[in-house]
Amino acid sequence: MNAPSNPNEAAAPGTAADRLRIVLVGTQHPGNIGSAARAMKTMGLSQLVLVAPEKAPDRDTQAMAAGADDLVEAAPVFASLAEAVADCRWVLGATARSRRVQLEPLHPREAAARAVAATASGPVALVFGRERTGLDNEELQLCHAAIHIPSDPAFPSLNLAAAVQVLSYELRCALLGEAGPAPAAARTPPPAEGAASHAELEGFFAQLAETLDQIDFHKGRAPESAMRKLRRLYLRANLDSADVRLLRGVLADAQRMARLAGQAGQAAGGGKIG
């Protein structure tokens, strides 16, 4: 299985269920891929995506899929999470709470309801990390919000397939209109039609980071903290493609002025007599 040349080929454009993507990152045991596929298929989901699995699907995968082999066979494989979600309008990471990457925490029921609503603007990804270590901080930075399954604190560990099953069930209920009220008020509405794609947002964030460096915004401080806060701020804004183009135009002018200021400084310094 290979990654499609166009990320949009990874998701069917039809129903809301077709736009819901289950992404498995760095899966360590091939059997878990099959178990996750089975969990999805029982709940009417079909869009499975793999990111850099440690081992390719094998006979264990087929055995654990128990009839969901078609999902595994159709699953595209990407080298990175950024590539796998490039065309998505909303990305949710299933994870334990992280103190370093502060994402809006969502209950599975709330996450499912908002994910289904967000499919109106394009593909939505629910991302699951490695069996032992989960998603790393860099991968979590690519997510708009985090899903926390409220397991027993005395024994909080869920295996990968169980986590996929819980969230697939909640998605199924939301698709059927049976999710009921969300347990907490949503702080960020799901993206509307025309929302910027994940790739567009990541391009903006990369240019923003470059610009902040060029204007010496950080003044010698580590840039990670400021970028985390700025990412959260802009993700809450639910930018559309036109918004991103406008902001990138502002950044381009700021970068141009920074270059001119640097060139002027060099010229002034070169003209001094030592």
Summary of the model, kept short:
With 274 residues, this protein is an alpha/beta fold. It has helices spanning 30-42, 59-65, 69-74, 81-84, 108-118, 137-140, 160-175, 198-214, 224-236, 241-270; strands at residues 20-25, 47-51, 77-78, 90-94, 104-106, 124-128, 145-147.
Explain this structure to me?
The chain is an alpha/beta fold and 274 residues long. It folds into two domains: 169 residues, Alpha/beta knot, CATH 3.40.1280.10; 73 residues, Helicase, Ruva Protein, domain 3 (Orthogonal Bundle), CATH 1.10.8.590. It is 44% helix and 11% strand. It contains ten helices and seven strands. The protein has a seven-stranded parallel β-sheet with strand order 3-2-1-6-4-7-5. Helix 1 links the parallel strand 1 and strand 2. It starts with 19 loop residues before the first strand and ends with a helix.
Q: Could you give the count of β-strands?
A: 7
Structural class: alpha/beta
Strands across the major sheet, in which order?
3-2-1-6-4-7-5
Helix content: 40-55%
Low-pLDDT segments, ≥5 res: 1-12
CATH topology of the largest domain: Alpha/beta knot
- The fraction of residues in strands falls at 5-15%
Enzyme class: transferase
EC number: 2.1.1.200
Protein name: tRNA (cytidine/uridine-2'-O-)-methyltransferase TrmJ
Function: Catalyzes the formation of 2'O-methylated cytidine (Cm32) or 2'O-methylated uridine (Um32) at position 32 in tRNA.
